[in-house]
């Protein structure tokens, strides 16, 4: 007669997978059939050099709150802890008698190293460990070019990746999760001290609803209308033309397989996939996220060092006292489209993607300040701060990464503003001191006639700053610096 296996709890270690549905680690724990102890450990040391920034911490606070609510609705709860993950899990296993650990993998360099340590320690204690991919359509190591090397051009990467099948999302089979006989001790959410002490993030709640429910609303809203015009709408910052799913994807409140399945469902009646051009372009953006993780996985030093190593010698400009960097951070550069983006970032924790490219180009090419400065600022102020996406974006802007915009491609902020915010409404919203300027002048107020400025109540250098750099001169200096770099690289 077979001996019944002793019932012992399974620990589900939540990380950037703060959802119940399409959560493969949670599903596997449910399939095991034993009581489940869900835990989240706030372990800043485990993040290496990239501890969560202020905006990310705000989001995490509310996302953990939403996850706990969702767990309680199915008879469970989220155990919260703070400190070294290994110690927390060891104590949790000891106090509950848990003999299995389930988690979903991450792909940042520090996270990978952290996972290896946790697995080694857990197995040394006789704990069964299982890990899964719930964060990406494909794991970074699964995709390689014909030479067996990582892709460095997105188009080639996506052509290869999109031909591969995408697994459907998995559904949580149980209506209620099996609970342990006694719940271990948990910290209160406030004990994690995630919310900023200043009132800087108070306005975030007007724009965001962290959690899986909020993510589901975003998906439904975007796919019900804006996706059809996504090709054009995604470039216009004055309208809701993008999905705004980035923070929900980063924290794993929705998975890319769920998004993929939702887009596929749009064409269920016709069998067409993607159902329209906008949906196809949107899926490419999901692909760009995948590509970002592919690049970071294969180039783990990229958050600190340029992938194109010659850019380590780039002749950046000096900025005594950090005055130019400070003006950029505060949205006081004198270029309205740049300032609107930086103020949107500060006030809402997010910035429209087209404007991210404009402000990035301005920092590294007009001000000629290191891209790392921008990456760090975005890391602290974006609710969707993601190491893979942030790194790829900034190395793209500075021309020092894979598939990057050439350094000599320099966005003219006035032309960009007039092209993508022709009405000036985006600038009017985020730079209210220019709100009364006609569209003709709003992107270059220094060119406006004196009477127009007076009528609009704009006093350059007083109510709104004059440009901190001249576009033509800055462009000339940037190209000269790039020429100097190329000459040094050849010698």
Description:
The protein folds into 3 domains: 10-134, HUPs (Rossmann fold, 3-Layer(aba) Sandwich), CATH 3.40.50; 136-167 and 211-298, Alpha Horseshoe (Serine Threonine Protein Phosphatase 5, Tetratricopeptide repeat), CATH 1.25.40; 309-490, DNA Cyclobutane Dipyrimidine Photolyase, subunit A, domain 3. It is globular. The chain starts with 9 loop residues before the first strand and ends with a helix. α1 links the parallel β1 and β2 (36-42). The protein has 20 helices and 5 strands. With 491 residues, it is mostly helical. The protein has a 5-stranded parallel beta sheet, with helices on both faces. It has helices at residues 24-32, 54-72, 85-96, 109-124, 154-161, 212-224, 230-233, 246-250, 256-266, 277-298, 323-330, 336-348, 353-366, 371-381, 387-398, 413-420, 425-430, 439-442, 450-456, 471-490, and strands at 10-14, 36-42, 79-82, 100-104, 128-132.
Q: What is the fold's blueprint, element by element?
A:
Elements: E1 10-14, H1 24-32, E2 36-42, H2 54-72, E3 79-82, H3 85-96, E4 100-104, H4 109-124, E5 128-132, H5 154-161, H6 212-224, H7 230-233, H8 246-250, H9 256-266, H10 277-298, H11 323-330, H12 336-348, H13 353-366, H14 371-381, H15 387-398, H16 413-420, H17 425-430, H18 439-442, H19 450-456, H20 471-490
Helix pairs in contact: 3-4, 5-10, 10-15, 12-13, 13-15, 14-15
